Queue: 2 jobs
Job 1
Amino acid sequence: MARISVVVPIYNEETCLRELHRRLTEVDESIDDDIECLFVDDGSADRSREIIRELAEADERVRYIFLSRNFGAEAALTAGIDHADGDAVVLIDADLQDPPEVIPEMIDLWREGNDIVYAQRRSRKGERFTKRFSAWLFYRIIRHLSGVNIPVDTGYFRLMDRRVVLEVRRCREIHRFVRGLVAWTGFRQTALRYDRDERHAGETKFTPIKMTVLAMDAVLGFSGLPLRVSVVLGLFACLFSVLIFAGLLIARIWQGAPMSGYALLASAIFLIGGVQLLMLGVLGEYIDRIYRQEQARPIYIAAEKSSALPSGPEGAAPVATSR
Ligand code: UDP
Ligand code: MG
């Protein structure tokens, strides 16, 4: 029998909390494993905190963290991941768009040896076309840019083995994209397809601005590409400059045409511009390195070690837990 911690980020979800707790309790009663809830209130201004306190008083499986203000869902999830001590940790939204009834299937896949079971949306209900399209595009862009196998159409809803949780905890970057970090740890990952429901009640807490900031954190946190754009532009500008100059030389030597001052000038301008862009790219490359160093993610993650080896300097590699 394992202990499963369910981490829920909450921002003004007073209308969803009781129903969420009821359905989680139902799931808990339908399986042998123990489910405990870790509600992380992200600075709600409504009655969410009161309700969480009441739930915690009535049910010892409910625990909570209240953040001092609204830090954003990524920070709330991080607080939850830092404190959840189950054998596996499930991240789930508070609004019941992710049905808790999927959790037993996740646990089964975990028992089969998967370290990360992420729930991938087969369909999503009750969301506008703009939201669906921007989400669709976002997942594909970040997947291409990141160099990490970040699954598409997958929100926070996922189960992680304890050893994944321990590794994610070691990533302390401030601008964070938790889904990316979880995928980045590696281990054995598998998808579980599910149908996403409508929000139980209330409105989406992700304003377009919050979504844009998150998209930036995702792209910048996992890709140095924006810093390299200027290298490509610079190369093109230099190439263009050389082409103009070569054209002028050919016309002069073979046809005896006079050198056009304008064309020479254009060639020089492209050369200067190109060299500057290239140097910007070189600077960008150094900044990228400083930034990656500053993120201070673990350089490697060991999945298994022979027992004779001493534990590494960066803390013991976690050994498989009881599933
Ligand atoms: N959330 C949070 N802090 C925020 C915004 C959202 O903790 O600043 C929580 C929210 O309460 C919910 C989850 O993150 O449990 C996902 O938010 P939402 O359902 O509004 O996003 P959507 O499903 O529309 O993308
Ligand atoms: Mg939602």
Job 2
Amino acid sequence: MANAAKAHILGFPRIGAQRELKFAVESFWRGDSDLAALQQTGKTLRQRHWAIQADAGLDFVSVGDFAWYDQVLNTLALLGAVPTRFKFDPKKLTLADYFTLARGNPEHFAMEMTKWFDTNYHYLVPEFTADLRFDGGVDWLFEENAEAVALGHKTKVTLVGPLTLLYLGKIKSGEGDHKFDKLDLLPKVIAAYQNVLQRLQAAGVEWVQIDEPILALELAAVWRNAFVPTYEALSAAAPKLLLATYFDQVREHTALLHSLPVAGVHLDLVRGAGQLDDFLQDWPQGRVLSAGIVDGRNIWRADLDAALTALKPLQEKLGDKLWVSASCSLLHVPVDLAHENKLDEELKGWLSFATQKTQEITAIKRALNGERDAVAAQFEAAALSVAARNTSPRIHNPLVQKRLSEISKISAARSNVFADRIVKQQARFKLPAFPTTNIGSFPQTTDIRQARAQYKRGEIGHLDYLNRMRDEVRLVVQKQEEIGLDVFVHGEPERNDMVEYFGEQLWGYGFTANGWVQSYGSRCVKPPFIYGDVYRPEAMTVGWSEFAQSLTSKPMKGMLTGPVTMLQWSFVRDDQPRDTTALQIALALRDEVVDLEKAGIGMIQIDEPAFREGLPLKAADWPHYLDWAVKAFRISASGVQDDTQIHTHMCYSEFNDILPWIAAMDADVITIETSRSDMELLDGFGEFAYPNDIGPGVYDIHSPRVPRVEEMQRLLRKARGVIPDAQLWVNPDCGLKTRGWPETTLALENMVLAARSLRAEVAAGQKAIAAPA
Ligand code: GLN
Ligand code: ZN
């Protein structure tokens, strides 16, 4: 067919369906295997992934999506722009050097890592110094392209775009560095990309995909204005460029994208479905439009008929200039559904992982190209799956829907304001000033993990398991008595993961056996998926909390994972808005909170470490998100009496720009992670005059190092400078499950000493010595 649409993907997961890359890399790090073995694993995985793409019928295989650790670091290695502080020769960078950049060594701390837009993938942050050169680096990309070509594949090479690379990097000024702006580096960066593009052209590459996901952000004018000159310079002597945008609509940049001298543009039509019509107006003749119609961020099987209907008019307009694709790189979904052998057939029939998505993309392409009959079976199966999902009783639970329809009758507010509640809570708990507590988990010893695993495998019975966990809770309570803490936790030994634990007890959640997604480097996560109305068939934590409380007269905090975190760390339904799912979870949690209260638990913590992560990419979309996220939390928390104290916990995020919403959550106590920033994160709470109680973390839980009493005193004095004494709690940054017992005991003992000395200082009417800067 002359006007045939094409099919491609923006990238394939590199980790391997069985996490082969993870295991190979970690074995290399341990010194258990050599470089040749590692190289071989990489080669095998690339080959396999290209074969999946070619067999599916994609018109190109993707080269440049493979990375030993991270694609941003790979780009820096390619350009010769790795951080200079390591003193590596960029042109002779070895794989061992590359890993040192990512992981650090005794002399050098590792490169900083942060989240790739609104995904759970973490990239290494480029470090820009005045002495950084972009003189070219390793040849890996060219070698990988040659590798694919030698296998008979037609390749499309993908690169992280120059403006995105600059935008995501950080200026690090060393001694003697003059001040400069990131965009000052642009000429050097452009020259480096030109060089790469010329080499790719010489190698016979026809298309290069350049990813500029920053176009999904609200860009300042200086960044917007940089696009035209950059792409004019790049397209001059280069293969055809496909500029890829994703993760949101790019409507505000429509005119800019039309004016860029590139051969094609990719749009995310899942996150930005509505942008297409505007975008096609005045669409430059002869330019490729890549339609990201299959969801690259989620695991649901595509509705092929709907995709076909959406793209048909496009094809009439664009002919062979229409490319069919996934919304973004498939890096963010698991590799292959074929490895899910424990999932029941019904659920499995609703899902699609990266491998299946490549087949969906080509099915859509072929149907567009007049081969609908040849892919009839695929279309039929997809239609059946969509219909089954629409009507399955596993998805639609009338009880949940009735309750949700009546949610306006539920008050999302506590009966009385904090000022009144805290008086009653204080009368009930009689806590000392600066009460000490923990965030929830205590060390997860091999013994505990083993017991959980044995129970899961059916090797030990329920009673046996209960007894072992109860022994652990007893130990944790006894330790807390000895250490002298004021508010106790039960230690969470029964929980493998704070989301999975609850997901397993709620209806509507599913779990995969191999649904691994790369989080950073060799680390992968296996998010559960929410497929149906979330319903709590019975109490989830009450037995544990009740038991723990029975062991002590100190208040025992009940411990729950909040609605936003339950949502954020899962694959979610695409058949209803996120906020609907969040409210369903919130209702289930509300019942648990009330049940805990009935069982005599006076303090209940609802963790929301992922609250900040849920923020949309565009600030214009923040208010809507924050409104429903706060509402979901309040629905879960507001069913209790005044003298029940609600805690929440957040960590490892910026809080300052969302303080009014954190305050609107109206938890009686919030514990946050602040020691890493030397209490600086707390300043925002002070300036905002955060109204309720707050426990700033006084020590970092990531290191086995035991903080000295004086260090914590210093941090607490700093905190007192910002937060009124009456509101101040004392606690570590986060849960202690990754720590060992010896350092945990010592650290908490010191923490209690620090709090006591502070109480003495205050009692003696001494003025706290101002904290040294
Ligand atoms: N309660 C959880 C714990 O202590 C909180 C973990 C978290 O913030 N990620 O482990
Ligand atoms: Zn935390």
